[in-house]
Amino acid sequence: MTRPAPLRIGTRASALALWQARHVAAAIARQDDAPLVELVHIATEGDVRSDVPLWTVGGKAFFTKEIDRALLAREIDVAVHSLKDLATLLESGTELAAVLPREDPRDALVSRGGEQLHELPPGARVGSSSLRRRAFLAHACQDLTALELRGNVPTRIERLQAGRYDAIILATAGLKRLGLEGHITCHLSVEEFPPAVSQGAIGVCVRADDVHAQRWVSPLDDRAARLTTMAERALLSSVEAGCQVPLGALATLVGEALHLHVAVCALDGASMLTAAGTAPADAANAVRLGERLAHELLAKGAQRLIAEVRGVGNAVAAP
User: Fold this and answer.
1) pLDDT given at position 56
2) CA 206/CA 9 separation, integer angstroms
3) CATH of domain 223-319
4) Is residue 249 a contact partner of residue 235, using CB atoms and an 8 Å limit?
5) What is the rounded CA–CA span in Å between residue 179 and residue 289?
6) Residue 62 and residue 45: Cα distance in Å, rounded?
7) Which residue, 210, 228, 187, 216, is CA-closest to 83?
8) 210 given a catalytic annotation
9) What is the predicted pLDDT for the residue at 45?
10) Catalytic hit among 68, 77, 85, 166
């Protein structure tokens, strides 16, 4: 029997991105008569601009657009992303063919002295590159000092251990995938720190006209991960917020009921808006649930909080 044509998987070259790409490659390889798989490393704008906070930079899809453009240029056949980095409006001609089973979506605190979040002393330096985390940190603990923290996961931990921070906040999923969960001091509650939309999920994109790639990627799709992230992404799209806005959301599937909780926070932590709802567990209702809660948030004034945050980013970015 003739072996199927190889698949080229596009990925960033960070340790976590490579873990995710290899995870997808291994899942493809477990299928009968699977094709050979090659990893293609692609540098993204987010990798290149590692010296500035991304929330001060205009645009979106900092870690995905170069990979998706390589997909459209037929330089690769499969694009593997952290789904939280993928814009809600996909590049024309691509499709999200699979969402793999979701890892723990919670944020985690890693503290140098082993302190829990509310045990950190006043003025303690907490590192994060996420506006969402910094806003919810300010809401939960107003006496802490948030500092910018870029770099891959191991680098961030090294900077903590070197004494540049007293604690840092990272995604639990990334720590677990890299075998670094032993560094976790505690998981942060989703009520105080609702995670980024789709946090913990791996998204796999292919060209919409590539039947060969779809044949091997589509079986990797996980129903629970697909429905929960679909609700969260519909919410994000309807609020018209990007990754630089302090919005957190988490959908969970309980039986055949889909639950969604969402919060938007002022950057200084002074105010927070929340909404929650439930819908039947199918694709159409997942989208409607996300859209409904988005409209609820907007009616409560979420657009004002988003505009304030974008104004801060524009002011910082201005020459």
Assistant:
1) 53
2) 10
3) 3.30.160.40
4) yes
5) 35
6) 5
7) 228
8) no
9) 80
10) 85
Largest Cα–Cα separation, the chain = 67
Which amino acid is located at 19 in the chain?
Answer: W
Per-domain residue ranges of the chain: 1-100+201-221, 107-187, 223-319
| C-alpha closest to that of 8 among 78, 73, 94 | 78
Q: Which residues pair with 252 in a beta bridge?
A: 259
Domains 107-187 and 223-319 share a fold: no
Q: Where does the pLDDT of residue 150 fall: very low under 50, low under 70, confident under 90, or very high at 90 and above? A: confident
CATH homologous superfamily of 1-100+201-221 equals: Periplasmic binding protein-like II (3.40.190.10)
Burial of 242-273, coded b for 16+ CB within 10 Å and e otherwise, reads bbbbbbbbbbbbeeeebbbbbbbbbbebeebb
Residues 147, 236, 72, 48, Cα dihedral to 10°: -10
Considering the entire predicted model, what is its pTM?
0.91
> What would the two tokens of residue 220 be?
């990797």
Domain 107-187 = CATH 1.20.1560.10: no
CB of 27 within 8 A of CB of 100? yes
> What's the rounded Cα separation, in Å, for the pair 134 and 146?
6
> Which of 104, 84, 107, 118 is CA-nearest to residue 245?
84
Q: For the chain, give the percent of residues with pLDDT over 70.
A: 90
| Cα distances (angstroms) measured from residue 159 to each of 37, 111, 303 | 35, 12, 35
Whose structure tokens read 């060969």? 212
